[in-house]
Design goal:
Blueprint: E1 8-9, E2 28-29, H1 41-49, H2 62-72, E3 79-82, H3 84-94, E4 101-106, H4 110-118, E5 123-128, H5 137-147, E6 151-155, H6 167-179, E7 183-187, H7 191-194, H8 198-211, E8 215-220, E9 233-237, H9 239-246, H10 256-266, H11 269-292, E10 304-309, H12 311-323, E11 326-327, E12 329-334, E13 337-343, H13 349-359, E14 363-366, E15 373-374, H14 379-391, H15 397-407, H16 412-422, H17 429-441, E16 455-456, H18 460-469, E17 471-475, H19 480-489, E18 496-498, H20 510-518, E19 523-528, H21 531-541, E20 546-552, H22 557-563, E21 567-569
Parallel strand pairs: 2-11, 4-5, 4-6, 6-7, 7-8, 14-17, 14-19, 17-18, 19-20, 20-21
Antiparallel strand pairs: 1-12, 3-9, 8-9, 10-13, 12-13, 15-16
The chain binds pyridoxal-5'-phosphate.
């Protein structure tokens, strides 16, 4: 079965639902494919020219219908306006008789996926895209021929991916549909971003409407024209079909302000055409930059792109985009594949910054103990045995971890001393260190030394992958000599290493800042297993570094999230999911 057959979409109908109200004011909304940038001057002008006296009467949409028909070279009977494309879709659906069969390529605009299947007297046949998230014309023709549907609903450019069929392909499809008694609802909500010569597009539309009586085209003033707030969309097509759909519309559903603004928009086609070209250029540049970061960005011809991410990337992206004040929309294709859909902003840099630190930080700082090396049998045991030595009391590893979290202490000698204090023993730090080191490194009585029980947790493949994408540094509270032993054990022999002697221990940000300065890095991941590591990243943020705090723990996740971790992974090798 194709992965897309189970495609589910986030929040099927309402783009601006109640959940978005809270942050609507502070966030840059790149989740609804609206026009970006400052308000166009023609909009302000049209508003100031608006004569409010007309608000006392019911609206008359006939001037807009006439103007639209005229701009496409059609008869007014071949056009109808609606309260947004959404109302056109609802009325189109209401016009369809029971038991009709609808062919629906997916993924598609969430309204179709929500409202069509809700009509349970219809027979809806989904056509999943292939693994590259594409439909093919041949594939759709085959479906029409084999399934003999009453209607095909095609969005071109498609939402949420942005796939675009050239006019000749659409023509072939509509022709094949006509030969099989199938009508086509062609949703061109984003066509202005693909066919940036409006004149050529209008001429083509006229030709199609005149040649095919099985075609209804949907367009909207919400996207290229930047009028999503006034709610105005329209249908063009065979006069009989248009009359049928129009007859189901509520009277006066398109208000006078919408009519006035849509008429003004039609006067400014040339300007809007230029804007669409500029959006297309930014779209292609953003796509190219994201592809260079190793991401899958299917070609888009709309005013948005879809970036494919795995579940861990999505989890982190949600955090990073939220921190950057950017709201994106997510579409789950299957368990392992989610699309982040991004409306092309006026300035692409903040979005790029978000993805750059998601997939290619300039520097990755790795804590050693508990991240690169499993010290549960060495350092943690040395803490337990030293406490036992001085107090004759057995503490558990959970108590050690809890104390580490509470005190944000990243120095196991100090931690041992604090644990002893809790038990009522005041021991000099020198004595603690001496005993601790004897257990850890071995001595005449403990020849073995717990250090021998340490296991490397980072695999060679992970090291290679991380090194290929970013500079690496080790930021550890180990004394230098022990840090160097651990470093070679992890096949990171030449990695820049900040040890206890080089900088104040975490939660101080000093070690991270030193490593960042050495690598001239402005974007940094810190990967650590305890609260002090995470706190160090939070402290580093105040210096202007762009940072991501990555926790590593399967048992201590809540504490790490509470300390400010952006994401917590079970083990260090999962870092490769991002790179
Ligand atoms: C493919 C598609 N069709 C139609 C619409 C409806 O737009 P509106 O109701 O704002 O005209 C949208 C809006 O996002 C869309 O993406």
């Amino acid at each position: 079965m194709n992965a897309l057959e189970n495609c589910t979409l986030q929040s099927p109908v309402c783009d601006k639902g109640i959940n978005n109200l809270v942050d609507a004011l502070d966030c840059q909304s790149l989740d609804s494919n609206e026009r970006q940038g400052p308000i166009a001057s023609w909009v302000t002008q049209a508003l100031s020219d608006f004569d409010p006296s007309c608000l006392q009467q019911y609206p008359d949409d006939s001037p807009l219908v006439r103007k639209l028909a005229q701009s496409f070279g059609l008869q007014p009977s071949q056009a109808a306006v609606f309260n947004g494309g959404d109302e056109a879709i609802t009325n189109w659906l209401a016009s369809i008789g029971p038991k009709s069969t609808i062919l629906l390529p997916i993924p598609t605009f969430s309204v179709y996926q929500a409202v069509i299947p809700a009509r349970n007297d219809l027979n809806v046949m989904s056509v999943p895209s292939n693994d590259a998230l594409e439909q093919t014309i041949d594939g759709l023709v085959c479906e029409i021929e084999s399934k003999q549907p009453d209607w095909l609903v095609l969005v071109n450019p498609n939402n949420p991916v942005g796939q675009y069929f050239e006019p000749e392909q659409i023509e072939a499809l509509v022709c094949a549909a006509a030969n099989n008694n199938c009508k086509v609802l062609l949703d061109e909500a984003y066509i202005e971003f693909a066919q940036t010569s409006f004149l050529a597009s209008q001429t083509r539309t006229k030709k199609w409407i005149e040649s095919f009586d099985n075609l209804v085209i949907l367009r909207t003033f919400s996207k290229a024209f930047g009028l999503a707030g006034v709610r105005c969309g329209y249908l063009l097509g065979d006069a009989e079909l248009i009359a049928q759909i129009r007859s189901l519309r509520m009277p006066y559903s398109v208000n006078q302000l919408a009519i006035t603004m849509a008429l003004a928009a039609l006067e400014h086609g040339t300007l809007i055409e230029c804007e669409c070209r500029a959006v297309a250029l930014r779209r292609d540049l953003l796509s190219q930059k994201l592809i260079e970061l190793g991401l899958n960005v299917p070609p888009s011809r709309a005013n948005f792109i879809a970036v494919e991410c795995n579940p861990l990337q999505i989890k982190l992206l949600k955090k990073l985009s939220c921190r950057a004040g950017i709201r994106l929309r997510y579409f789950e294709i299957c368990a392992e594949r989610t699309l982040a859909r991004i409306t092309i902003p006026a300035d692409i840099q903040p979005v790029l910054d978000c993805f750059q630190i998601l997939c290619a930080p300039q520097l990755i700082c790795l804590d050693m103990d508990g991240v690169l090396i499993d010290v549960s049998q060495s350092y943690d045991q040395a803490v337990i045995q030293t406490v036992d030595f001085f107090s004759q009391q057995a503490i558990t590893i959970e108590q050690v971890i809890m104390k580490r979290n509470q005190t944000q202490c990243n120095d196991d000698w100090k931690l041992t001393q604090l644990l002893l204090e809790d038990l009522g023993y005041k021991i000099d730090i020198e004595q603690v260190v001496e005993r601790f080191q004897a257990f850890y490194l071995g001595d005449s009585q403990n020849t073995q030394g717990l250090i021998k029980l340490e296991k490397t947790m980072i695999t060679e493949a992970t090291v290679t992958r991380l090194q290929a994408r970013s500079s690496l540094a080790i930021v550890t509270s180990r004394p230098r000599a022990e840090a160097l032993i651990g470093r070679s054990q992890c096949r990171l022999a030449t990695t820049f290493t900040v040890a206890r002697e080089d900088a104040a221990v975490k939660p101080s940000a000093d070690g991270i800042l030193l490593a960042a300065a050495q690598a001239s890095a402005k974007s940094v991941w810190m990967v650590g297993d305890n609260v002090a590591d995470i706190q160090a990243v939070v402290n580093a943020q105040t210096s202007g570094l762009k940072t991501v705090a990555i926790g590593i723990s399967s048992t201590n996740q809540d504490a790490l999230y509470q300390a400010g971790a952006d994401i917590v992974l079970d083990n260090v090798n999962q870092l490769t999911y991002f790179l």
